[in-house]
Amino acid sequence: MWGETMINKRKKLIAGMTTAIMTLGIFTGCTSGKEVQNNKVEDENIVNVYSARNYDVDKELFKKFEEQTGIKVNLVEGKSDELIERMSREGDKSSADIFLTVGAESISLLKEKNLIKEISSDIINTNIPEEYRGEDWVGLTSRARVIAYDKDRVNPENIKTYDDLLKPEYKGKILARSSTSSYNIAMLSSFIQEDGEEKAKEWAQGVVNNLARIPEGNDRDQVKAIAAGIGDVAIINSYYIAKMVNSSDVEEVNASKNIGLIFPEETHINLSFGSITKSAKNQENAIKLLEFLTSEEAQSAYAEANGEFPLNQKVELPELLKSWGEFETQHIDFEKLGENKQKATLIFDQVGWK
Amino acid sequence: MKKLKFNGWAVLSTIISLMIVLPNLDIIIHLFQKPNETWFHIKEYLLKDYITASIIIVTFTIIFTVIIGVTLAWLISAYDFPFRKFLRWSLILPLAIPPYIGAYTYAGMMSYTGVVQRFFRNTLSIEVNQKYFDIMSIEGTIFIFTLFLFPYVYMVTRTFLEKQSAGLIESARLLGSNSVGVFFRVIMPICRGVIVAGSTLVALEVLSDYGVVSYFGVQTFSTAIFKSWISLGDVDSAIRLAGILMVVVFLILSSEKVLRGRKKFSFTNTKVRPIKRKKLKGIYKILASSYALLVFSLGFLIPVAQMIAWSFMSYKNIYYSDFFKMITNSILLAAGCSFLIVVMSLIIANHSRINSNILSKIYSKVTLIGYSIPGAVIAITMILFFVDIDSKFKGLALSTSIAMLIFAYLVRFLAVGFENIEGGFEKIGNKFTEASRSLGYGVTKTFFKVDIYMLKSVILGAFALTFVEIIKELPLVLNLRPFNFYTLSTKVFEYANDEMIPESAIPSLIIVIVSFIAIFILYKVADKEDA
């Protein structure tokens, strides 16, 4: 009896194991089979995208693109530097045709690693002003890193430049997130490019001296900290205010009500951009996708859904963005922005910006 | 004949260990490369503070997870009190919440716009001092890790106590030891082995985390790794730092055997007798229930309630395309990989038990290395490894398939399966195996006919843990997935990364629900087997 049940149980176990292995096999087989096909059949109508723009609006746009052109968009999303490392390690075996990311500081890295190639398209050239594109990259949107303030406690007239944050009256009043944030690194990199290392370091030191608390949280948390009275002014990306105003959390909407935005002289802007990869096998489709993403339709979707500034000048700004008024931006060489990343990081560490 | 089968276990163990080591060789090689400028910067400005912070966080997290995990395991297995039956299995549920999601959730609740301060402000009209509500600190980090990782310790200890300690505890009680005495003089010493196993997993998970600490702005050793890579653009230094972490962890763990001590506590008679639980009365009953319920609420109920509240706010804003496929992807991936991991763990654990030599000891420590460093570093190493394989064998396209991701999961989470299964083997000891073999069964036959049956609930437990780990895992699936492959955790990432925490609550909640169901089923099955 005992022996029999043992054998039965063993049979059950083995059957279970086999089923599991087979399931896994089929599961991996199917997926990898499909992928192999994608690579082999090069004239298939597809475009392979690596994207660090992890937004729903992007996926909706890809869908529209598929409907309009019949070109299937295959997508891998991730974080910018990790995707760049992935492409670099995949080398010419990489199946990526297009790389989309946020943060122009990546351009120099992509060039240095020889991962991107020339884009030539008249459509793109008319869609996007020359300032926001290069030989092998094209800007999609811009984001401004601005100063948020409490409307009751701060007179915006007193803050005209980023340097005004260093005034003694803001001691213990400034909020900023950690220096590991790519937004802060890009910002300081742009200051290094414009005014040199010495001045950039002075500025960073000045901000650290005036900080209300040790940097923590993300950009939205800085705004909440203003509402909570921990500090009066915060360095944040403008589109987070746009997102807070439209937040699904009523309390976040309330917290953003008493917050004003200052676009200082020479406001620091960074770009979200796209490039075609060296290994691209579907180059024409890739160009078509970039043309679509720079079109008025896509650009206004970026602005509406994400509060980013469209680079296609024909697009009308959404109400909220319009309400911030015209502002003067810095004019930096985006291709060189990444070259100062290391210096910026060193400065942050030296001045003790956690 | 016997000899041949015996070698089979050794060969398989060797293959599995090589599988783990080979892709990580690149990391080890970086240790011997010449240090560069970044390296000196990191050493000068950062390393000391970062290491100190890491040590503080790991130490206190271990202390608290052990206190909470062991006391709960002890209460549940030795006493009877209200809700005991429910808490017995549900106390493992906090594991279903990824620590970084737990961090976002608690930070959200405690923030100015969160439910706690709102209550003070709007209902009680009290303006609170923000200082006391700031969770984004080293203390807060320890709090988060403790809440969401203590089940590792709880689970191994409870399984061990339920099976193991009846005789000892009853003798101690008979000899006049009171509860406290039994706990410190009997429970703690006999549990030493499983506590070390459980807290090893806790320590490794804390060390490899970057999600919680980067959001909280707490700077730890993994900050150094990512700062080198992302901010300083120096991948080599990043890998080098990861390599140092890996080696240090490996060395510490290799001395773990010493910590476990020489004493073996395994079944001494054929009938495993559960502890006779003492019925708690009066105040003790209330205290025991409230303590266990408090931990369960903090680690599961409260964050889940917050997630549900967020889901109601945000469900309209979510882009639902392919949601169902995301769920099946997550489940298949987690189930398939967990199955493979359990099989691999059984092989290595059985081999190292039968054949106790240096090599088998090394194998059993090798299983842990993938769990010690940040997932993103494992990911980029995997890519290199698979691209290499693909270019050596024409026609292969593993690096663009899901095979790469599955392989990476095996490397990373073998530790979780192995620590649990090894503990199980240790618990059943060698007596039955020896009996079986002296009756003429070979090692393999004994394994299938005796060991597996005795380990069934352990195997199911190991499967459940690995399943939950994989379904919530982020960096590997983010970096290694093929085109158009989405899981629940990549969806969580998309929203969380964009600071849309309420939106990330829905996929997080589904992860929790799936894990909940998996744990529930596996526990019911395991209990039936035990009965």
- Radius of gyration of chain A equals 24 Å
What CATH architecture label of chain B applies?
Orthogonal Bundle
The CATH class of chain B is identified as: Mainly Alpha
Provide the structure class of chain B. mainly alpha
C-alpha termini separation of chain B: 36 Å
- CATH superfamily label of chain B: MetI-like
CATH superfamily of the largest domain in chain A: Periplasmic binding protein-like II
Q: What is the approximate shape of chain B?
A: globular
Major sheet of chain B: 2 strands, parallel
Q: Architecture of the largest domain in chain A, according to CATH?
A: 3-Layer(aba) Sandwich
Pair of chains with the largest interface and how many residues each contributes: A-B, 81 and 81 residues
Strand coverage percent of chain B: under 5%
Structure description:
The complex is a heterodimer of chains A (354) and B (531). Chain A is an alpha/beta fold. Chain A has 2 domains: 46-141 and 270-316, D-Maltodextrin-Binding Protein, domain 2 (3-Layer(aba) Sandwich), CATH 3.40.190; 143-268 and 329-351, D-Maltodextrin-Binding Protein, domain 2 (3-Layer(aba) Sandwich), CATH 3.40.190.10. In chain A, 49% of the residues lie in helices and 16% in strands. In chain A, strands 1, 2, 3, 4, 5, 6, 7, 8, 9 and 10 form a 10-stranded mixed β-sheet that branches. The longest helix of chain A has 39 residues, at 2-40. With 531 residues, chain B is mainly α. Chain B is 77% helix and 1% strand. Chain B contains 23 helices and 2 strands. Chain B has a two-stranded parallel sheet with strand order 1-2. In chain B, helix 18 runs antiparallel to helix 19 (443-454) and helix 22 (488-497) packs antiparallel against helix 23 (501-530). The longest helix of chain B is centred in the N-terminal third of the chain and has 42 residues, at 37-78. The model of chain B is unreliable at 1-5 (pLDDT under 50). The chains are: A alpha/beta (354), B mainly alpha (531). Chains A and B meet through helix 1, helix 2, strand 2, helix 3 and helix 8 of A and helix 2, helix 9, helix 10, helix 13 and helix 14 of B.
